[in-house]
Amino acid sequence: MCRLFGLLGGPLTPAEPWLIATDASLLAQSHATQETAQPDGWGIAWYPETRTPRVVKGVGGAYEPGEKERFVATAKRATGPVVMGHLRHASNPMRLPKARLIGLENCQPFSHGSYLFAHNGEIRFPAETRPYLGKFESRLEGVNDSEVLFWLFVKHVETLGEPLVAYERTVADLLQVWTDVGRPPEGPFTGLNVVFSRGPNELWAFCHWRGEHGGGLLDTKRPYYEMAYTGDAKHVVVGSEPFDTTGVEWRPIGNGTYLSAHAAHGLVAAKTGPIPNLAPVPVARPAP
Asked: Which pTM value belongs to this model?
């Protein structure tokens, strides 16, 4: 599974400390152990003085020779107000050959206009979800289930206007797809952890998962999918787990919780709360 990073701050707030410098940086998380390595791509995105984001991606692990140098150089260039990062450990719900999963088109963050989006987890039935995308189905470029989730979420943001409501509707659609295919025991998804922005003055994070998945990559006492954030009046940083262990207070974003952060007049305000109207996943239908 993947790793997420999001920053909202001032126009020149550097992302470098959390991306590459701290003891639990995104780079450190890319190869915490051989078994938990994130080998299938990386991406860093930011807004370079416009509402059109710059997105730089690599197809290998951020820790690998050649890729590491590009990752570090990109991290040093990426500054606020919004920076998003992603490490990819490819899921494969369609059971495709490994070679088909690798490619820049399958790497994150994904972008659309001023939107940026990164996901950690797996939706189980991406092919069956595609018809729910409407006009956005034609935008698909890769074979990544996260890209299907991205366009489904974008569809609802465009229609409903509010990311929190759009996320609720996205989850409801995934439950409906699962029902449509007969509610198999594996369920509709593993995790729907998302970092999202519509532009350089906002950052959203959504945390939602099913089942037990072990501990974090660096802090194994944390649930794998439990997100974390820290910040003050000048910035907020959010991710799959804390990006340092040096006494900074990192607060959890638990299952079924969202974070919303907005910047105005040089100040950043963030709030968290339960995601409303999350329908529980029904018990799978017993096999006949």
From this structure: 0.96
Q: What is the pLDDT of residues 154-202, one digit of tens each?
A: 999 999 999 999 999 999 999 999 999 999 999 999 999 999 999 999 9
CATH of span 3-274: 3.60.20.10
Query: Domain ranges in the chain?
Result: 3-274
- HEC per residue, the chain: CCEEEEEECCCCCECHHHHHHCCCCHHHHCCCCCCCCCCCCEEEEECCCCCCCEEEEECCCCCCCCHHHHHHHHHHHCECCEEEEEECCCCCCCCCCHHHHCCHHHCCCEEECCEEEEEECCECCHHHHHHHHHHHHHHCCCCCHHHHHHHHHHHHHHHHCCHHHHHHHHHHHHHHHHHHCCCCCCCCECECEEEEECCCCEEEEEECECCCCCECCCCCCCECCCEEEEECCCCEEEECCCCCCCCCCCEEECCCEEEEEEEECCEEEEEEEECCCCCCCCCCCCCC
